[in-house]
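Sequence of Electron transfer flavoprotein alpha subunit apoprotein (Longicatena caecimuris).
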Amino acid sequence: MAKFEGYKDIYVFVEQRNGEIANVGYELISEARKLVASIPQMGFQVVGVLLGHNVTDKANDVIAHGADKVIVADHELLEGYSTQFYADTLTQIIETYKPDSFLTGATVLGRDLAPRVAARLNAGLTADATKIEIDQEKVADGEALLLVTRPTFGGNLFGTIVCPDTRPQMATIRPNVFSMDPVDTTRTGEVVAFTPDFKDTDAKVVVKEVIAKVVEGIDITKCDILVGAGRGAEDCLDMVEAVAEELGGAMCASRAVVDDGFASKDIQVGQTGKTVRPSLYIACGISGACQHVAGMEKSDMIIAINRDPQAEIFSIANMGFIGDVKEILPLLKEEIIAAKK
Ligand code: FAD
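Predicted 3D structure, token representation.
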């Protein structure tokens, strides 16, 4: 008998707010598709889990994004996010369907929900993962053991964590770490309604009012072109902004620039900032510390400008300019303007 008899499939928590599904759920479904394709002998499916109120009609979107099946818990107590009711429901879903692994976005909601559910189930959870693989050597024994990698020791090392003794194997993954597959509206799948059984319907915490955060300026995670300012460009941020503007993109910054008070934390890229994956990232006067690289290395094209030929940023750049940003940026801007004519 297999060690984890009855446990199967990769489940993904599909986070929604006010009926709008967060991209991270679709990113995780796309990655889960790749994982199940790497173990065809296990016959696993990708299952989306959608919680909320009046959200059942969203299940088809989840299927179009790659899920084979969607479990929907549509209940008035799940209207807004409640740790208590969401954790109750998710725990019951996992106990009922026995997923082999369960992936959640490392969003504010996911970071609150996933550990609570893992603790209730006595399951292992790897938080803030940046890479997920399956140990192919274990597949012959009928096991789909996840190898989950995350930054550790302040981002100086990457650790790969396994949870071999319990199921489901749980992980939270930051938004923008994985790419999202194109939508396929011709896909078909199964939608299963799940009715949670709340033992206690008295909310321990009552949310009186939700005040949406006012995002000042541009959301860099949604930009297709980013020009990153590092400490080496602190005295010419106007030039960085001008190049970003010419390219129809936005400026972002390293933590050094934020800590030095030249940029807002909202535009910080990296391990303690945002993860971005634009089609073009121009790093200006950025050394390429691993904590910065962790937030932008998945960009399609990386161009680095740095006066130090040994700077780490060149090791991940597709193209580099060795020189002073103050000399190179104006030339770059001129070239862009000329190319647009
Ligand atoms: P520096 O390291 O000071 O590099 C400046 C670069 O500019 C150098 O390579 C230099 O050669 C070049 N330069 C200088 N002048 C010029 C010029 N005129 N023309 C061209 N090049 C020039 N960092 C982040 O960015 N994001 C994070 O989220 C983040 N999280 C962290 C979390 C932890 C736990 C820790 C410990 C650190 C974190 N850091 C983060 C900090 C990170 O380790 C680096 O200190 C930081 O990224 C350095 O920023 P920088 O490259 O802009 O500055």
